[in-house]
């Protein structure tokens, strides 16, 4: 909405709602672009995250895409920000919670979204060092439920919790990301039992 102010010598036009465009994309535009971006990442990797490709898939103007997500790194960061982090409801038993978290992560790795997204982050990190913090952030998000459950088993200290969480999920990530194997769920559950024995 604009207001006009007229004097004898000049006419001034100013915006009542504030200058410029809104700070972020409209919610439906963001959902449309990020949904297309996730499909591209999962099928073709982070290199496919160009404004041109997103424009072709969504019909959203390239200028809008560049304005809100100027680089593939910005698209990846936005995807991480909206990524769901499903967590099973706590059973009240931290050991049972750890086993539930293992099953949940195994399912997410088996169904490929986590594995494919991590692969894309690894590839993007090798091409653009600015993407390394995004990869770390995503892995830390995967570790968080394990840290929480491990912290409820006695009081092992932050360093020990971190080591225990890594001992549980690292073999799963190596199998999926580096060896292209399916996850070994039984091995992961045995690792949980060993870690709990060491902490307890």
TrEMBL record:
SUPFAM superfamilies: Homeodomain-like (SSF46689), Tetracyclin repressor-like, C-terminal domain (SSF48498)
Residue ranges that the Swiss-Prot or TrEMBL entry lists as coiled coil: none
Name this polypeptide is given: TetR family transcriptional regulator
Domain HTH tetR-type: 27-87
Domain of life: Bacteria
PROSITE patterns: HTH_TETR_2
Keyword hit for Transcription regulation: yes
Organism whose genome encodes this protein: Nocardia pseudobrasiliensis
GO molecular function, one term: DNA binding
Keywords in alphabetical order: DNA-binding, Transcription, Transcription regulation
InterPro entries with a match to the protein in the record: Homeodomain-like_sf, HTH_TetR, Tet_transcr_reg_TetR-rel_C_sf, TetR_C
DNA-binding region(s), chain positions: 50-69
């Amino acid at each position: 909405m604009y207001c006009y102010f007229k004097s004898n010598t000049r006419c001034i036009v100013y915006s009542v709602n504030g200058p410029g465009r809104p700070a972020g994309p409209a919610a439906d535009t963001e959902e449309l672009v990020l949904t297309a971006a996730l499909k591209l990442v999962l099928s073709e990797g982070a290199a496919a995250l160009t404004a041109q490709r997103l424009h072709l898939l969504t019909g959203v103007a390239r200028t809008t895409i560049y304005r809100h997500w100027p680089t593939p790194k910005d698209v990846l960061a936005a995807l991480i920000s909206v990524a769901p982090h499903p967590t099973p409801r706590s059973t009240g038993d931290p050991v049972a919670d750890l086993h539930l978290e293992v099953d949940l992560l195994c399912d997410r790795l088996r169904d490929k979204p986590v594995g494919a997204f991590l692969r894309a982050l690894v590839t993007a990190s090798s091409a653009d060092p600015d993407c390394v913090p995004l990869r770390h952030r995503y892995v830390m998000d995967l570790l968080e439920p394990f840290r929480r459950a491990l912290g409820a088993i006695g009081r092992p200290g932050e360093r020990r919790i971190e080591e225990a969480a890594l001992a549980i999920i690292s073999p799963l990530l190596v199998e999926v990301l580096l060896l292209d194997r399916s996850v070994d769920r039984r091995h992961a559950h045995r690792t949980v039992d060993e870690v709990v024995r060491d902490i307890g």
